[in-house]
Amino acid sequence: MLPDNSKNRKGLKTKKILVIDDDPFAIQMIVTTLKAEGHEVLAFSEFESLLQELRRSLPDLVITDVNMPEVSGFEVCRKIKEMFQPLPPPVIMVSATLVELDPIMARKIGVDDFIVKTSDMAVLIQAVRKILL
Known about the structure:
The protein has helices at residues 24-36, 47-56, 73-83, 103-109, 122-132; strands at 16-20, 40-44, 61-65, 91-95, 113-116. By secondary structure, it is of the alpha/beta class.
């Protein structure tokens, strides 16, 4: 696969980010925010659809919700890290509350960062920039 050298409006290389979340409002907020940052963002509400896209093309970053009905964010991360050994894409885990996050387990399975969902997307932007730039 040839590298994508397209640039966003800020003159930076456009990064491909995949998002999986069962909450349509959360997906809308995350996608809108990251597109405004100049990224290519694809969103999924089902794990199988995400897996199909992962098989087609390696993303620069995956953002996953922790608590979803079909699969947990921990399983999403574990599968991604297994699929792309030895160089898997980074994963950010998002959660509605800190109670859902187990930071020790998250780090153990390869989560690169984790944040709590808020209406203030600055935390997400900061986490994404820290990993991608």
